[in-house]
Amino acid sequence: MRNKSGYIILYTVILCIVSAVSLASLKQVLGKKQDKNVSLDNKKKILKTVMNIDTKTPNQINQIYDDLVSEFVIDYNGKKLEGVLGSSIKVQKERKEKPENRKLPLYSIKDQNDKTRIAYYVFPTSGRGLWDAISSYICIGADGKTIKGIAFDHVGETPGLGARIKADPTISVRYNDKKLYDETFKPVAVKMMKGEGNNYEKDPHKVDGMSGATITANGVNDMLKDYAYSYQIFFKSLNNQ
Amino acid sequence: MATEILEKTIVEKEPLFSKKNRKLLIDPIDSDNPITVQVLGICSALAVTVQTVPALFMAAGVVFVTAFSNLLISLLRNSIPSRIRIIVQLVVVSLFVQIVSEVLKAYSYDVYLQLSVFIGLIITNCIVMGRLEAFALANKPWPSFLDGIGNGLGYGAILIIVAFIRELFGMGTILIGTPLEWHVFESMGMKFQSIGIMSMPAGACIIVGLLIWAQRARNGFSESN
Fold first, then answer.
1. CA–CA gap between residue A97 and residue B196 (Å, rounded)
2. B88: three-class secondary structure by DSSP
3. How large is the average pLDDT for residues A127-131?
4. Of B196, B221, B200, B197, whose CA–CA distance to B211 is shortest?
5. Which helix (H) or strand (E) holds A192?
6. Nearest residue of B to residue A31 by CA position?
7. CB neighbours (10 Å) of residue B40?
8. Do the Cβ atoms of B93 and B74 come closer than 8 Å?
9. Is B13 in a helix, a strand, or coil?
10. Confidence band (pLDDT; 50, 70, 90) for A176?
11. What is d(CA B85, CA B62) in angstroms, rounded to the nearest whole number?
12. Cα B52 to the chain's mean position, in Å?
């Protein structure tokens, strides 16, 4: 009886329905909590580029974020798109579009002491490393050129080599006060050089490399250049105001 | 349903932790360890043992999955059509793996991010399917449940030992990411020089090899042919 086709089909159907229903109800129960985690993680990544939030509780982080950060989406021409939140944009998906057609999330962060002034702009980027996707949040100062902080992330770079972009805090510090644009707002971006241990302090568009992780570094360089170009018009317009 | 009730009445005749049942629980931790003796589940043992805390969560996840999929398959064993039993096993395993993944995502998001793809890959962990095929399909629910816990613990024990050693020599810390975080070398006034290979899967491979050697030397085990 157990190996008759009718029984097998019925058994499979019932098994699938039972599993699907139980997973769907689990998702219903946990969904809200999961969404909260995802959005908190997003907020942490944005705030981390400008301040140290390691000791803050989730509630404090939410409060600081609500207090200081506003979300936008802009297009290539720097125009705000109405009715969309920055955090609702899937950056990795948008990357596949031409820079001119991308929807570009943007977060403005107010000055902590003078809340009428916007002190920083943060935007997310996405690119390819050696093994898998890499991403970052870049914080630009009010001048629209200077990198004030950067937080890299990756999916599967080699631990100890390419994964240092996230694991080694001395890497992202190298980008501080470098310029994403030159005087005329050409998207020169910042290039991570080959070889480690060199001093590029005087060059606003170069940082020291990571030995053993040239391909990850190239991925980072391409990513920065790509997004420097995408956001070029917006940051240029800031300067004309 | 009828079979379920029948099983319960039979099981209750034997004490819950009879000598045979205790053996099911304890054997896989040492003399029949899934990783070091049966050499199953090596992939994730190499992948998620960079730090101790994720390894702990992974171990707990595998214990949960092996225990409950063993239990469920054993309950269903008299109704599963033998021609599609592997598929049924896969569905059951993925169901529990998905539960682990969703619960972690809701209650321990950092660990969820850290383990990322490896939670999903519990489905392909040979230990789980191996126990379903070899034990749960032919045994009653309670012994199957114990067998699942035992094998999960055996796997977890090796995972945690390997992760502890790798974290100590790869990062110079014990239990990083917890309130108990301890920078061993710095606190003893030494400069820590990371051993690069320990943070790569190759390092885990070497440690697992050493563990197998140590365990076989202690238990006097040798390949029979």
1. 38
2. helix
3. 88
4. B221
5. strand A191-192
6. B106
7. 20
8. no
9. coil
10. confident
11. 21
12. 14
Whole-number mean pLDDT of chain B? 85
Q: Does B95 touch chain A (CB under 8 A)?
A: yes
Q: Determine what percent of chain B falls in helix, strand and coil, rounding each to the nearest 5.
A: 70, 0, 25
**Helical packing angle, B2-11 and B141-170, nearest 10°:** 80
Q: Report the chain A residue with the minimal C-alpha distance to residue B81.
A: A2
Which residues in B lie closer than 8 A to residue A37 (C-beta atoms)? 105-106, 109, 112
Instruction: Give yes or no for residue B13 having a pLDDT over 80.
Output: no
**The two three-digit tokens of residue A241, written as one number:** 């105001």
Per DSSP, what are the bridge partners of residue A110?
A118
Q: Does A15 touch chain B (CB under 8 A)?
A: yes
The encoded tokens of residue B116 equal: 């990322």
Dihedral of CA atoms B64, B70, B71, B73 in degrees, nearest 10, equals: 130
Strand partners, A121: A108, A140
Classify residue A104 as exposed, middle or buried by CB count within 10 Å of its CB (0-12, 13-18, 19+).
buried
Indicate the pLDDT class of residue B113, thresholds 50, 70 and 90. Answer: confident
How far apart (Å, rounded) are the C-alpha atoms in residues B149 and B65? Answer: 9
Task: Check residue B7 and give its pLDDT.
Answer: 54
Most confident of A126-130, B141-145, B199-203: B141-145
Q: What is the pTM of this model?
A: 0.76
Q: What is the pLDDT of residues A177-194, one digit of tens each?
A: 888 888 888 888 888 888
Identity (one letter) of the amino acid at A105? P
CA-nearest of A219, A69, A61, A151 to B109 is A61
Tell me how far CA of residue A73 lies from CA of A82, A127, A232, in angstroms: 8, 19, 14
3-state SS assignment for residue A179 = strand
Nearest residue of chain B to residue A6 (CA atoms) = B81
| Per-residue pLDDT band at B1 (split at 50, 70, 90) | very low
